[in-house]
């Protein structure tokens, strides 16, 4: 089992960089799954999916629960929350820049609309 530790953003973003792992997280958002259930939607082997799950575990995005002889996988929101908050600072940065750009564009627009010329028949 992977030890509990503070989320490492580098590991989180590495885990999120792969479309298969993002799809796995999407499945786990709806409900917990056994690893075997995760294999069917992908054209991959059980071992390949298991490696993706281990990457998600290392990043703190997924945790395993032993249920009998099966491992049930659950989404852990802490890692995603850490990434969301880190990105939030950049959202503020870009919102400020876009607001300034919008103001500059509004200043450069003509104050009056040009008059249309009438067509002669």
Q: How big is the Rg?
A: 24 Å
Mean pLDDT: 85
Class from helix and strand fractions: mainly alpha
Number of domains: 1
**Which series of helices and strands comes N to C?**
HHEHHEEH
Report on this structure:
A three-stranded antiparallel β-sheet has the order 1-3-2. β2 and β3 form a beta hairpin. The N and C termini lie far apart (84 Å). The chain is elongated and about 85 Å long. By secondary structure, it is mainly α. The chain has five helices and three strands, in the order ααβααββα. Residues 1-6 have low confidence and may be disordered. The protein has helices spanning 9-16, 19-30, 35-39, 46-58, 77-108, and strands spanning 33-34, 62-67, 70-75. The chain has a single domain (7-108), classed as Arc Repressor Mutant, subunit A. The longest helix is centred in the last third of the chain and has 32 residues, at 77-108.
Gist?
This protein has five helices and three strands, in the order ααβααββα. It has 121 residues and is mainly alpha-helical. α1 packs antiparallel against α4.
Write the layout of secondary structure elements.
Elements: H1 9-16, H2 19-30, E1 33-34, H3 35-39, H4 46-58, E2 62-67, E3 70-75, H5 77-108
Antiparallel strand pairs: 1-3, 2-3
């Amino acid at each position: 089992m992977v030890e509990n530790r503070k989320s490492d953003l580098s590991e989180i973003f590495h885990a999120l960089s792969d479309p298969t792992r993002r799809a796995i997280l999407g499945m786990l958002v709806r409900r917990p799954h056994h690893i075997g259930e995760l294999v069917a939607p992908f054209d991959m082997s059980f071992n390949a999916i298991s490696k993706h799950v281990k990457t998600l575990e290392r990043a703190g995005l997924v945790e395993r629960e032993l249920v009998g002889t099966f491992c049930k996988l659950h989404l852990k929101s802490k890692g995603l929350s850490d990434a969301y908050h880190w990105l939030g600072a950049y959202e503020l940065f870009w919102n400020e820049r876009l607001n300034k750009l919008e103001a500059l564009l509004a200043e450069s627009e003509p104050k009056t609309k040009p008059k249309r010329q009438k067509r002669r028949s």
